[in-house]
Specification:
Two copies of one chain form a homodimer. Chain A is about 65% helix and about 5% strand. The first copy, chain A, is mainly alpha-helical.
């Protein structure tokens, strides 16, 4: 190995690790802002965070990074794309290109518009007035198209944006998978809605003391493997998982006295994100070999623990007796009734409140609309009409107003185009991975019934977590399950589960 | 104003504000480490903090700072030492000189020895074996003498070290005040110990539910003015006050079911520190005009709220009825009994557990010993003997072992020489300021009786907090009270208070 290769590689890694140090510090500041910070601390916190963001950007776009990468391009260290060094070089090259391709003026314009957009979105939503938000949405779409053009794309500008959240994924790959999902899902939802058998979710709306909810959620998330020696659970309005270092993952939830499911399943969900982070190689922290692959893969972990595991009958065969000890209101509730209640399907207006089955229809609507906006097939002015039309078509309901319709999500106002589909990709990958794990490990439900979650976690650690970004999401799916991204396993799981529950 | 002056001044301020941004971020990381961080996060947290410390040091010793200061030395901006710009230039010059005078090799040696010293101190204390600690103490004393020599001093090397914590103070000024304190205090303690009247502290050792302690402590600290919109109260082993920004002050305490006083008075104490920080001009954050003067002045604020206010009869005329509502165990307790209990004087071995009166004798012993060590009049090998001899002489007790004697404090093992006297300076300044405030505002106890603490806080804000570092501690005392640092007002307060309590 020529000395200059080694030196360039070491400099590259050291810069990435230093950048990660700043990013992890920023992670703590953001966690604190959302959980502990006194209200008056907000103004200065914004200054601290924007300062760190600037320092991070400086290190990511440092021209020296370009030089180190150029020196390494044809080196033996880069020869195997999936080796440790090959992964580091490939992914840092990717990041450097992305970060340096955008003109500074566009970066600033995007950032300013995102701030204004979110402010205006809050107002427009409160006033139920899409017209207020429209000019900034138009500007945002235009800027995102410029961003896509600056980054470059092969087929559609949407590719360039999707790639930010799901690296390597293309519209040509994701589009058909999601279209297949939609075509298989809408009839299933119609069948469910038409069924005369109705599980009753009301038993989850009795009284559940907050302390007991916290203790029970903590115990269950610890039981599936979330390591509280290297993590915490706190309270926020919107549940999230944030990292403050390689062995410091913090999840949050919110407790509602009259809703067992809201906190419990969000704890499992966020713990699923945390388990992925806790499973990444800590000694590679800050390098692409120690970082998550994509939002889709991240979501596959959270969704799998929340749904394939946490909403399974086997899980509750183990946990329901404990829940009945913890909550007086669950005394005498049968496993069947409880299992039905946590899996009630009901088409609704609001994405974040949606059940496991209809959730993806909310995502599909957003994916189709944002893709059309970016590709120029839909004008922002036409968006509310198109939104309502799709809600009627896919979910059989029409939003009574824009506040609970097209204005319900913050994403577009913040410039997040290409983000929504990763939620559904997470579900599809979760379906694929879970089916494969069940095949590889034998009867997973039997293990859950005994309270054993370690085999599944170890499998995920070995198949996914340990690799960092060595393989892309699509490559991982192919490698682990023998097939590319597909909606089939997930749909099959839904048909089996809800077929039984709703007597289809 | 020549343009180069303005430019240099702006650069200087901007560098200081950026440094403060990093320091405030470090403040949050340290607070989090001691209150919230999961245990496994510690290793990486140390890396984050040491990285930030390095970045802060770089900015403080940046040669450009020296150039800006040189350009400003004779400028009109520096002409008035106490103007806004004059204060900024003078104090940043001071900091720059201090930071750049020490050779890097000495800085590193000091830092390494402090880490080893603290580790060895923990072991030596556990083993009750001073000999284990002696070699590192010898090395530390030698290094601190080198540090003093590098920084320079007029009279004694102890001056150079004291100046780190009490800027501008000299041994010639502090020594006589503390000697006067000692000479007035020892007979008072003897009188108290010899008195047949004994307040009974036992009534504070009944049961005090932790939640109620927290709520009551929070209410009382809010009543004296601590702003919880810009602050928090959390739990730690050792109470402290930490800042994470100009409007983000975090205090901590610990709760003991069978000890009312421990948590309550530490909350008042830390809130006193927090009130000072909350009173500094937020728009000057990061500049010397927005920072605390000295540890002694800081301690004067915490001690005044804890003792002159919180341990006064008037304070409890207002708060005892509330405390009796909050704590069943205080039902039927008379004001006299309660007031006596919170002011029980009992010479004891351990500084941090000492009462208001004897506390200063613990400090005086440490001051005299560390000064002798640094001046070469005492060898580390002779320290345990000298310690025990002074405890017998000043407090009438001899430590049964070194663990509860000379090994009880972490300070010397961490290289903190010159720090201890600031605790007593705080008490003396608190005595001076409180006497003056009482004179300026009329009858302060009458206000306390009505639950009115705002007049005192406003007076402190105006007289002390608002000025940042415009005046040194000694200048402040002279300016506010018309006399230099003196033990007289504090001793007078103690004689009056404890004379009545103990019937002297």
């Amino acid at each position: 190995m020529p000395a200059n290769h080694t030196a360039a590689y070491e400099s590259l890694c050291s810069n990435a690790r230093e950048t990660a140090k700043l990013a992890s510090i920023m992670g703590l500041l953001e966690w604190d802002e959302r959980t502990k910070m006194p209200p008056a601390g907000g103004d200065y916190r914004a200054e601290q965070i924007s300062y760190l963001a600037g320092e991070i950007h400086k290190r990511q776009t440092n021209p020296a990074v370009g030089e180190w990468l150029a020196a390494l391009a044809d080196s033996p260290l880069a020869a195997d794309r999936h080796s440790e060094s090959g992964t580091v070089i490939r992914q840092l090259q990717r990041q450097y290109d992305k970060k340096t391709k955008l003109p500074q003026s566009l970066v600033e314009e995007l950032s300013r518009t995102a701030v204004l957009g979110q402010q205006m979105w809050v107002e427009a939503r409160k006033a139920d007035d899409f017209a207020k938000f429209r000019p900034l949405l138009e500007k945002t779409v235009e800027l995102k198209r410029q961003e896509a053009a600056a980054i470059g794309f092969a087929v559609t500008p949407y590719d360039a944006l999707l790639d930010d959240y799901e690296p390597g994924a293309t519209t040509a790959e994701v589009g058909p998978a999601l279209a297949g999902l939609r075509d298989a899902l809408t009839p299933l939802v119609e069948q469910i809605v038409g069924s005369s058998r109705k599980p009753d979710g009301e038993l989850l709306k009795k009284e559940f003391p907050l302390d007991a909810q916290e203790a029970f959620g903590k115990a269950a998330s610890a039981a599936i493997g979330f390591d509280y020696e290297a993590g915490r659970l706190d309270v926020t309005d919107h549940p999230f998982c944030a990292g403050a270092g390689p062995r410091d993952q913090r999840i949050t939830t919110r407790y509602n006295l009259h809703d067992f499911g809201d906190a419990f399943f969000s704890i499992l969900h966020e713990a699923g994100h945390g388990l992925y982070e806790q499973g990444l190689p800590a000694d590679q922290f800050g390098l692409p070999t120690g970082e998550a692959v994509s939002l889709g893969i991240h979501e596959s972990q959270s969704r799998m623990w929340e749904n394939q595991v946490g909403r399974s009958r086997a899980f509750w065969e183990h946990f329901l007796p404990q829940a009945q000890t913890a909550f007086a209101s669950l005394k005498g509730v049968s496993l069947d009734a409880f299992y039905g209640a946590i899996n009630e399907v009901r088409p609704s207006l609001i994405r974040v409140d949606a059940d496991e089955v209809t959730y993806n229809l909310h995502i599909l609507i957003r994916f189709e609309l944002e893709r059309a906006l970016i590709e120029g097939d839909l004008q922002p002015a036409e968006l509310p009409g198109a939104w309502n039309e799709k809600y009627q078509r896919y979910l059989g309901i029409t939003p009574p107003n824009d506040a609970d319709g097209v204005l319900q999500d913050v994403h577009w106002s913040a410039g997040l185009f290409g983000y929504f589909p990763t939620y559904s990709l997470g579900n599809l990958y979760a379906g694929q991975f879970f089916a494969q794990a069940n095949k590889d490990l034998g009867d997973l439900p039997a293990a859950f019934r005994r309270g054993e979650f370690r085999p599944l976690l170890d499998w995920l650690r070995q198949q996914i977590h340990a690799h960092g970004q060595r393989w892309s999401a699509g490559e991982l799916a192919l490698q682990i399950t023998g097939r590319p991204l597909s909606h089939a396993p997930w749909i099959e799981q839904m048909r089996a589960k809800y077929g039984e529950l709703y007597g289809l």
